[in-house]
Amino acid sequence: MNMETLIIDKEKIQELLDNAPAHIVIDDFIGQLIISAKIEKALDQLENGQFLTSEQLDEEIEKW
């Protein structure tokens, strides 16, 4: 199992809480936190040029 470190700002957690219903299922909220953190991480990677182009991905797949 691949465990990655995900980081989320307190402000984002507060935003998710503010938009949540008065009673929430903890598993659902944790899932929202994980998805939100993964989206933020992906956007940061995209902004920093840490991604593969379609062509690069095709080349990597051919190596398999």
Number of extended strands: 0
Largest sheet: number of strands, sense, barrel closure: none
Taking the alpha carbons of the first and last residues, their distance comes to: 21 Å
Separate helix tally:
3
Q: What is the N-to-C order of secondary-structure elements (H for helix, E for strand)?
A: HHH
Structural classification? mainly alpha
Identify low-pLDDT runs. none
Per DSSP, what share of the residues sits in E-state strands of 2 or more residues? under 5%
| Oligomeric state of this protein | single chain
Can you tell me the overall shape? elongated
Mean pLDDT over the full residue set? 93
Structure explained in plain terms:
This protein has 64 residues and is mainly α. It has helices at 10-18, 26-47, 54-63. It is elongated and about 50 Å long. The model has no long low-confidence stretch (mean pLDDT 93).
What characteristics describe this protein?
64 residues; mainly alpha; 3 helices; elongated
Give the SSE map:
Layout: H1 10-18, H2 26-47, H3 54-63
In short:
The chain has 64 residues and is mainly alpha-helical.
